[in-house]
Design a protein that fits this description.
Layout (H helix, E strand, L loop, with lengths): L1 H26 L4 H23 L4 H29 L4 H11 L3 H4 L2 H4 L7
Helix pairs in contact: 3-4
Length: 122
C-alpha cells in the first residue's frame, strides 16, 4: 500500500490543480500570456523550492544527484559541440543550442529530482 499512498500523494494534487484551472477558465476570462509568465517565473520555481526544502537528503543521495547532473550535462555539452563541428556550424549557434539543450525548463528536471528517484526519504 505504500505505493498507492505515493501515487495518491502525487496524482491527487495535480488533478485538483488541473480541475480548478479548468473550472476557473470556464468562469473567468484570462490573459494566457500573463498566466504563462506567472507560472513559469513564480509558481513553478516556488513549487520546486518547496519540494526541495521538504525533501530529506542523504549524503550518498546528494553525491549521486550531483554526479548524475554533472555527467549528464557534460556529455550533452560534448555531444552538442561535436554535432556543431560535424555540421560545420559557426560558434554562435552551438552556444545558443547548448544553452537550450543543456538547461531545460525547471519543471522537467528540478522538481522530479528530489522526489522521484529516492522518494521522500532520500
Amino acid at each position: 500500500m505504500p505505493h498507492m499512498e505515493a501515487l495518491l500523494n502525487t496524482v491527487v494534487p495535480v488533478a485538483l490543480v488541473v480541475a480548478s484551472g479548468y473550472l476557473l477558465g470556464k468562469r473567468l476570462p484570462m490573459d494566457l500570456t500573463t498566466l504563462s509568465r506567472l507560472t513559469l517565473y513564480l509558481l513553478v520555481p516556488a513549487l520546486i523550492l518547496d519540494s526541495m526544502y521538504r525533501a530529506e537528503y542523504s549524503r550518498e543521495g546528494l553525491l549521486g544527484l550531483t554526479l548524475g547532473f554533472a555527467l549528464t550535462y557534460g556529455v550533452l555539452y560534448l555531444a552538442i559541440q561535436a554535432t556543431a563541428r560535424l555540421l560545420g556550424l559557426s560558434q554562435e549557434p552551438p552556444k545558443g543550442f547548448s544553452s537550450a539543450a543543456s538547461f531545460p525548463t525547471p519543471g522537467t528536471w528540478a522538481f522530479p529530482s528530489p522526489s522521484s528517484p529516492w522518494g521522500r526519504r532520500a
